Amino acid sequence: MATQIIMDLNGDTRHNFDAKDVKALFEAERRFKALTGAGFTAATRTASGEPFVTRTFDPTVEETLFFPRLVGG
Amino acid sequence: MFVTQLNDANGQLRRLLAACLQLARAFREWYLRPSTREQRGLKLLREWLSQKQLTQYDTHRYFEVIGCHTGKRYRIYHGNGANVIELDDAALPRTGWCFVPNDHLVAGDVMLAQKIALETDERGALASANNFTPR
């Protein structure tokens, strides 16, 4: 089961999906594009746990974290 | 007779005060507890911190990251604004940086976004940041 985690006012919202389910995968890709298009950064982790930013949807990734655009405070 | 009644009243008053104090402490703990969303943010942060960062955070309420472009060290304090401090070679505060997600997020989420930004796109993060002189 893969997960997309979106930071939001509630802390975060998690969307789990089965990467083997074509419909669920399509929905996950649509969500990825919608969020990154809205300025969210998509980050995943390497096997050793280091974060890296991704700009394209990868159906094999287990966990993707989305956080809003960063601005000067 | 009067002295005995006075002693009884004194004892009852002490017990009442102790009970009130206990209630006040319980209320304070309840009032100061992290909200569910704050807890969720901290849980997510803890999932993404390295073991070293997690140990630092649990000990000091801050953790350090290495900028991916310059190799500079930054200390991210618990908080959701003006909480990133660039350190010099002696681990002393050099510059404060303020950059936050443009949505209102809980501290755990803010710190995690700052960590990922510095570790994956240091220049981009600092380009959007305001700096300040750390105390």
Radius of gyration of chain B: 23 Å
**What structural category characterises the helix and strand content of chain A?**
alpha+beta
Tell me how many strands of chain A there are.
6
* Count of folded domains of chain B: 2
Hey, roughly how much beta strand do the residues of chain B contain? 15-25%
User: Can you write the helix and strand succession of chain A as a string?
Assistant: EEHEEEE
Name the helicity range of chain A: 10-25%
Count of individual helical segments of chain B: 5
| Uncertain spans of chain A | none
Distance between the termini of chain B: 65 Å
Structural write-up:
The complex is a heterodimer of chains A (73) and B (135). By secondary structure, chain A is α+β, with helices and mostly antiparallel strands. Chain A has one domain: Ubiquitin-like (UB roll), CATH 3.10.20. In chain A, 22% of the residues lie in helices and 42% in strands. Chain A has a 5-stranded mixed β-sheet, with helices on one face. The longest helix of chain A is centred in the middle third of the chain and has 16 residues, at 22-37. The radius of gyration of chain A is 12 Å and the shape is globular. The mean pLDDT of chain A is 95. Chain B has 2 domains: 1-33; 36-132, no CATH class. In chain B, 55% of the residues lie in helices and 19% in strands. In chain B, strand 3 and strand 4 (93-101) form a beta hairpin. In chain B, helix 2 packs parallel to helix 4. Chain B is elongated, with a radius of gyration of 23 Å. The termini of chain B are far apart. In chain B, 27% of the residues are buried. The model of chain B has no long low-confidence stretch (mean pLDDT 93). At the A-B interface, strand 1, strand 3, strand 4 and strand 6 of A face helix 2, strand 4 and helix 4 of B. Strand 6 of chain A pairs antiparallel with strand 4 of chain B.
